[in-house]
Amino acid sequence: MHDESRHRSWFRTRDGRAYLFGLGAIVALKIALLAALYLAVIAPQPRVARTPEVQRTHLLGPPPAAAKDPPDGR
Amino acid sequence: MDADVVTLSRLQFALTALYHFLFVPLTLGLCWMLAIMESVYVMTGREIWRRMTQFWGVLFGINFAMGVATGVTMEFQFGTNWAYYAHYVGDIFGTPLAIEGLMAFFLEASFVGLFFFGWERLSRVQHLAVTWLLALGTNLSALWILIANAWMQNPVGAEFNLDTMRMELTSFGAVIFNPVAQSKFVHTVSAGYVMGAVFVLAISAWYLLRGRNREFAKRSMTIAASFGLASALSVVVLGDESGYTVTEHQKMKLAAIEAMWETEPAPAAFTAFGLPSLAERRTLYAVRIPWLMGLIGTRSVDTVMPGIAELVARARERIASGLVAYDALERLRQDRNDAAAQAAFAAHRRDLGYALLLRRELADPRRATAADIERAADSTVPNVPLLFWAFRLMVACGFYFIALFALAFWYASRRELERHRWFLRAALYSLPLPWIASELGWIVAEVGRQPWAIEGVLPTALGVSSVSAAQVATSLVGFVLFYSVLAVVDALLMVKYARRGPDGLGLWPAAPTQAGHA
User: Fold this and answer.
1) How far is residue B327's CA from residue B329's CA, in Å, rounded to a whole number?
2) Segment B454-464, tens digit of pLDDT
3) Residue B209's pLDDT is what?
4) Is residue A36 domain-resident?
């Protein structure tokens, strides 16, 4: 190994730069895809109402007066 | 509840989590090995150790870049597929996740940049500090995620608030120092260390089999053998500790892992082999080792470990108790100041989750028949055959790693690594095993928690969002396609750079005579 290159970081070589550029591109692409996924698919969805009453209905079912069981009792 | 939505949401989360965990443990293990190699470089000044750190850093970088952000989709799913779960326990569960993002991941992400770009800008000691901090940040990330997961297994430091209808944090300290979190963290990270060591060992063995990069590979194998042996021993010992916490906090999970259908006199026998039959509720062709399970599970000879039948009976009692809490909640819905209802709820609140098991089939659990309660109690039994075999295969891998690293350590100490080609082949072919063991470990942990999202508090079925099965199926297909592409790209990149090796990348001369530089 030549002296001048002996202490040179591999990441500063042509190969190393290409490697780091590739990794950076992969990470950037993934972040862009995630952001697109969020903005296009998730953000437009209606948010779940978070009032205690909604949560109560989810956990316990509708209030007794409104509860309707199927004919077999289920 | 739409059973399809529950099943598909579980499948989607499981697939993304299992995929994410293809990358995480390798990062956890490799970063410490980089720190060790660079420490040797700083202490000895020998160039080959610097080059080793950079070469394994190249593979570490690929794994890091391909793995990063694959966990974010799981956090999306808490909102999209598990909205009620997120609302019910988000106050507690979200806290460690937020800390992980704000503290540990930022630490890790900052230092990974310095690791790659800082070689010529920082002094040796400064760069070494960066590498150690990178390893620390990576492991701290795992800590906070596992604290969150452990809370699902053992929900401490929180209680149900009647007014907000959700679980709220009462003691952050209890959540952090949850005994399940501690044992789970050390077991999981040590499994990652084993993976890192097997990865370095296997690729180095391939170089030696090809007669390439010999000095490089022998040094790498020596580091991997030492680090791997310590890690493999730790993972088994710490796995035992993890199992012990399961004995205390998740008795049904343990009974299912052991296919212990009935309570046995202490100390219980360990079933080394068998075919658990869910239909017959017994294990066919069981090969049993007397005393062993009792000694491992309870660390005593006189503590009885309850079997599945007894635990189902206990679940039945807790459902009955939970129905009192449920009824009290309904009365409080009509009159928040009903003192009798408040007292009844306070007395039975810890069993409310068991009554909620009935909500999967009944609009009003108070109308449950004895048969309904029996079915709900039976549903607390997870998939016994899957747990039984996943656990045994994971443990078998653990003991295999001890043998593999012990041999590697022995041969490395005697400078005989190259002489035993059969061992080099064995090391190479062992490469997939740590991934298999890690994934099996998560299957045991998470399938064993079913039917609970939060053990004893919230049934999984009640945590899902009000979405359609078609919506979940669509996103599931999307995730499978996207993640499959990522997995293929990752494998191709890893193979490409490993094949090129230190010689092909110009990191270290191929000629063996250059070993004198070391």
Assistant:
1) 5
2) 999 999 999 99
3) 96
4) yes
C-alpha–C-alpha distance, residues B241 and B235, integer Å = 10
Identify the three-state secondary structure at position A66. Answer: coil
Q: Are B231 and B190 in contact (CB under 8 A)?
A: yes
Structure tokens at A9: 């970081």
**Token duo for residue B26:** 């390798």
Q: Quote the pTM value.
A: 0.91
A69 closest CB neighbour out of B163, B363, B369: B363
CB contact under 8 A, B362 and A74: yes
pLDDT above 60 (res B512): no
Q: Which amino acid is located at A51 in the chain?
A: T
Question: In B278-353, at which residue ranges do the beta strands (DSSP E only) sit?
Answer: 282-289
What domain count does chain A have?
A: 1
Spacing of C-alpha A71 from chain mean position: 42
Return the residue of A nearest to B465 by Cα. A48
pLDDT tens string B294-341 = 888 888 888 889 999 999 999 999 999 999 999 999 999 888 899 999
Query: Is residue A50 one of the residues assigned to a domain?
Result: yes
Domain of residue A36, residue span:
8-60
Q: How far is A3 from chain B (nearest CA, A)?
A: 12
Rounded to 5 degrees, φ, ψ at B159 are -150, 160
**CA distances to B85, B215, B351, B355, B360 from B462, in Å:** 7, 58, 16, 12, 7
A73 in a domain, yes or no? Answer: no
Asked if the Cβ–Cβ distance from B363 to A61 is below 8 Å, we say: yes
pLDDT of B513 higher than 60: no
Q: Name chain B contacts of A1, Cβ cutoff 8 Å.
A: 47, 508-509, 514, 517
Looking at the predicted structure, is the pLDDT value of residue B95 above 80? yes
* Alpha-carbon distances, residue B311 vs B35, B305, B315, B388, B389 (angstroms): 47, 10, 6, 17, 21
Residues of A in contact with B356 (CB under 8 A): 59
CB contact under 8 A, B58 and A20: no
Determine whether the interchain pair B62/A12 forms a contact, defined as Cβ–Cβ distance below 8 Å.
no
Distance from CA of B18 to the nearest CA of A (A): 18
Contact residues for B410 (Cβ-Cβ < 8 A; gap 6+): none
What is the token pair recorded at B430?
């062992």
Q: Summarize chain A as % helix, strand, coil (round to 5).
A: 60, 0, 40
Where are the alpha helices (H) located in B45-123, listed in sequence order? 47-67, 72-80, 83-99, 106-117
pLDDT at B197 over 90: yes
For residue B226, give the DSSP letter: H
In a domain, A72, yes or no: no
How far is B444 from B426, CA to CA, in rounded Å? 27
Q: How confident is the model at residue B279 (pLDDT cuts 50, 70, 90)?
A: confident
Note the pLDDT tens digit of each residue in B111-125.
999 999 999 899 999
Instruction: Tell me which residue of B58, B49, B54 sits closest to B216, measured CA to CA.
Output: B49
Task: Look at strands B452-454 and B282-289 and give their pairing.
Answer: unpaired
